[in-house]
Amino acid sequence: MAHIVIIGGGIAGLATAYYLQKQREATGAPLDYTLIESDTRFGGKIVTRTIDDFVIEGGPDSLVTTKPWGAALCRDLGLDNELIPTNDYKRGIFILNKGKLIEFPGGFRLTVPTEFVPFALSPLITPLGKLRMGLDLFIQPRQETGDESLASFIRRRLGNEALDKIAGPMMAGIYMADPERMSLQSTFPQFLEMEQQHGSLIKAMQRAKKNRPANGAANGKPQPMFLSLKGGLNDLVEALVQRLQGELCLGQRVAAIRSTNPGFEIRLDNGAYPPITADAVVLAVPAYTAAHLVEPFLPQLAQLLAKIRYVSTATISLGYRRADVIKQHNFAGFGFLIPKSEQRKLAACTWSSTKFDGRAPNNDVLLRAFVGGDSREEVVDLPDNELLSLIKAEIADLMGVTTTPVVHQIFRWNKGNPQYDVGHLAQVDRMQELAQQVTGLYLTGSAYRGIGIPDCVKDAMLTAESIFKRLYGNV
Ligand SMILES: Cc1cc2nc3c(=O)[nH]c(=O)nc-3n(C[C@H](O)[C@H](O)[C@H](O)COP(=O)(O)OP(=O)(O)OC[C@H]3O[C@@H](n4cnc5c(N)ncnc54)[C@H](O)[C@@H]3O)c2cc1C
Fold first, then answer.
1. Sorting pLDDT into bands at 50, 70 and 90, what band is 110?
2. 311-345 burial code (b ≥16 CB/10 A, e <16)
C-alpha cells in the first residue's frame, strides 16, 4: 500500500487529497494518505464567519468564472445548488481619482476599452490619455521574448495614464502586487497572446467581443463574472473535509522531513509521535515553509523557494443597518479601487452585499475594506482599534458613510500573499526540476502557477495525477 503525506490543509492540500482519493476510487489502486494541518481548522486562507446573519469572508470571497476548476470542484462535491452568481447588473466598479470615486467606463475588458462611446465620455482618463491608449492600434508587438513586468507592458501599449488609473489598481488589486514587479507571463499571459496574435489589445478584445453571443456568454448562457457559495466559501472546505476518507490530522505542525530515498520520514512539531513514513510527500504550504522543510536534502531548491516574496494584507468587514446608511451612500456597484498615486492607506473596498445576495440580512449592507499589499504593508500591523478607526475614517471620507457599523471583523494575513515577480515562471520550472531530483516530492499551492482558488484546484488535480502516474503508470 502506497502512503502519501500531504502537508498543509488549505484548498491546495485538501483538493490534492480529494483528487488522489478519486483516482483511487476509479482504479482501486492500493493507496492511502495522511493530511497534516498545523492550524486548528482546515481551509488556510479560506475562512467564513457568520455573525448576526452577516456572511463575512476573511480571505477569498469569489471564484472567477473564466477559470472553471473551482466551480467544477464545487459541483463535483454536490454543491451545485449552493453556487451563487455575482449580481452583474450592478457590476459598476469605481476608481478613486483625485479624491473622487469615478465609475469605470462600460465596455472595458481587462483594462482595455472595447466600446468607443463610454470610453470617450468617461472623465476618468484625460483626452491626451485616451489618444495614447488609442495608439495601441498602431504600436508594433515587442520583438524580444522573455518575461516583462505588467507595468512595462501596459505603459508600452496603452500609456502611463492607463497604467496609473486602470491597470495598476485593477491588476494590482487582484494580486495585491506592484505592477512594476509583477510578471506578465505568470499573471496575465493572455495579454501577450493578444499582442502576438492580433498586434493590438484593442483589436483582440473587439474580435473576441464579436465572437461572443449578444448576452456575453460563450455557450449561450450569460456567464457571471464570479461565483460564490450561499453560506460562504468555507462551505467548500467543509464539503471537502466531509468527503475525505484518509487520515486527517489537525493542529499538528510538520517540523522536519528526512529523505530516506526511497521515501520520506516526516517529523511533527510536538515530537510525541514516531516519524510518519511516506512514499510521496506533497508540500501544500507557503513557499517559505516548503523552503525550510526541503533545506536538509535539497538546499538549492530551498534557496529558490525562499526567494518567492510574500506580502501581508488584511480585510476589515463592516456591517450596517441599511436604513442608517442608505441616505449617505447607495452601494450601487461592486466597490472601488484606489491607485497608489492617491496615497491612501486603504487599497480597495468591496460592497459585498451588492456583489452577492445573502451576504447581509435583508435590510442591511456589508462592505469589506482591504489594506496592505506591496508597499502598503505597514497598516496591517496596526492594533485593531487603530485599524478600525482608520478604515471608518476612510469610508466616511470616500463614501460619506459616518454611521457606526453594527458588526465588524478584522482578518490579518501575515505574509499571506505570494508575489509573482518578473521571471517567476522560469523560476518555478527550475524548482520543479530540482524537486524531481528526489523521487516522490511534490510542490503545489498558490506560490507557483496561479494564486486564486481555481488555479490551486487545477494544480492539485495535476499533482494527484502525477503521483498516480509515477506509482501506477497510466491507469
Ligand atoms: C485577503 C485575500 C483575498 C483573496 N481573495 C481571493 C478571491 O476572491 N478568489 C480567489 O480565488 N482567491 C483569493 N485569494 C487567494 C486564495 O485565497 C489563496 O491563494 C488560496 O486560498 C491559497 O491556498 P493554499 O492551499 O495554497 O494555501 P493556504 O490557504 O495558505 O494553506 C496552507 C496551509 O498550510 C498550513 N501549514 C503551514 N505550515 C505548516 C506546517 N509546517 N505543517 C502543517 N501545516 C502547515 C497552513 O496552516 C495553511 O492552512 C485571496 C487571498 C487573500 C489573502
1. low
2. bbbbbbbbbbeeebbeeebebebbbbbbbbebebb
Topology classification of domain 109-211: protoporphyrinogen ix oxidase, domain 3 (1.10.3110)
Which grid coordinates are listed for 455?
488555479
Residues 10 and 45: beta-carbon distance below 8 Å: yes
Q: What CATH class is the domain 310-418?
A: alpha beta
- Confidence (pLDDT) at 215: 46
Residue pointed to by grid coordinates 475525505: 244
Q: Is the pLDDT of residue 430 over 60?
A: yes
Ligand 1: which residue has its CA nearest to atom 50?
60
Domain with CATH 1.10.3110.10 in the chain: 109-211
Comparing 337 with 69, the larger pLDDT belongs to 69
Lowest mean pLDDT among 65-74, 205-214, 336-345: 205-214
Query: What pLDDT sits at residue 442?
Result: 98
Q: How far is the CA of 418 from the centre of ligand 1 (A)?
A: 10
Q: Report how far ligand 1's centroid is from the alpha carbon of 358 (Å).
A: 24
Give me ligand 1 centre to Cα 182, in Å. Answer: 20
Residue ranges, comma separated, of all CATH 3.90.660.20 domains in the chain are: 310-418
In the chain, what are the helix, strand and coil shares in percent, each to the nearest 5?
40, 25, 35
Could you give the angle at which helices 299-307 and 424-435 cross, rounded to 10 degrees?
A: 160
In the chain, residues under CATH classification 3.50.50.60 are: 2-40+235-308+420-472
Question: How many Cβ atoms are within 10 Å of 383's Cβ, its own excluded?
Answer: 8
421 Cβ inside 6 Å of ligand 1:
no
249 CB under 6 A from ligand 1?
A: no
- Which residue's CA is the closest to the ligand 1 atom numbered 31? 10
Cell reading at 153: 507592458
62 lines ligand 1 (CB under 6 A): yes
Q: What is the pTM of this model?
A: 0.94
Q: Is the CB of 331 under 6 A from ligand 1?
A: no
Instruction: Using the mean position of ligand 1's atoms as its centre, give its distance from the Cα of residue 419 in Å.
Output: 13
CATH for 2-40+235-308+420-472 is: 3.50.50.60
pLDDT attached to residue 104 = 80
The finding on whether 349 has its CB within 6 A of some atom of ligand 1 is no
